[in-house]
Amino acid sequence: MTTAPLFIALEGGDGSGKSTQSHLLRDWLTARGREVVLTREPGGTDLGRTLRREVLHGEDLDPRTEALLYAADRAHHVNTLVRPALARGAVVLTDRYIDSSVAYQGAGRGLGRDEIRELSLWATDGLLPALTIVLDLDAATAAARRGGEPDRLEREPSAFHEEVRATFLSLAAADPVRYAVLDASLPADEVHRAVVERVEPLLGAAR
Q1: What is the CATH number of the domain that holds 109?
Q2: Domain limits for position 103
Q3: Average pLDDT by consecutive 10-residue portion of the chain (207 residues)?
Q4: Which of 97, 140, 163, 203 could bond 9 through an S-S bridge, CB–CB 3.0 to 4.6 Å?
């Protein structure tokens, strides 16, 4: 009997704790004998790392170019890393996925939520996570948590980040079965326990 594949995305604003929670969840799953592929967008592949550097730290980009670069990274990421891992029964954890583009480029940049979602669905041939964990945190607290030199998106004003937050919450409210919204202001171990409560029922064996 082979293990069932599982695709999970972690979403939320910069500073909400996605990296911390993805690593904690990876360790929890690994301790239970699962193969876990931990990745991120952009930057989960060699091409993705190049695109990440350019889109976040390179020259200024107009919103449509930015959106298309994220979609190109996502298409390559899914085709070369995510789908092969799922095909062999792994758990794939991705730090950001389609909803980040919907929130940041669709809502924040004003390109249209539906248009950006359709672009990403085309790029990924319709692949959606079984569960999307939204780590919810207000923009001011998230900004205070971030360290280092801010990237292009992190430099946007508070109103931009609040619009991104509102979009994540709106997406989750529209599909509560496939989303889990968690209070990211809580201590990391409490958030992790809440993550595990949502993930554990999804684990099982494939026929």
Answers
A1: 3.40.50.300
A2: 6-202
A3: 86 91 97 96 89 80 92 96 97 97 95 97 97 93 75 79 95 96 96 97 66
A4: 97
Flag whether 185 is marked binding: no
> Is 131 contained in some domain?
yes
Single pTM value for the model? 0.92
Would the annotation count 18 as a binding residue? Answer: yes
Tell whether 22 is in a known binding site.
Answer: no
Q: Is 19 annotated as a binding residue?
A: yes
HEC letters along the chain:
CCECCEEEEEECCCCCCHHHHHHHHHHHHHHCCCCEEEEECCCCCHHHHHHHHHHHHCCCCCHHHHHHHHHHHHHHHHHHHHHHHHHCCCEEEEECCHHHHHHHHHHHCCCCHHHHHHHHHHHCCCCCCCEEEEEECCHHHHHHHCCCCCCCCCCCCHHHHHHHHHHHHHHHHHCCCCEEEEECCCCHHHHHHHHHHHHHHHCCECC
Residue 17 assigned as binding residue: yes
In a domain, 1, yes or no: no
Q: How many domains does the chain have?
A: 1
120 is in an annotated binding site: no
Rounded to whole angstroms, the Cα distance separating 137 from 58 reads 27
Q: Is residue 179 part of a domain?
A: yes
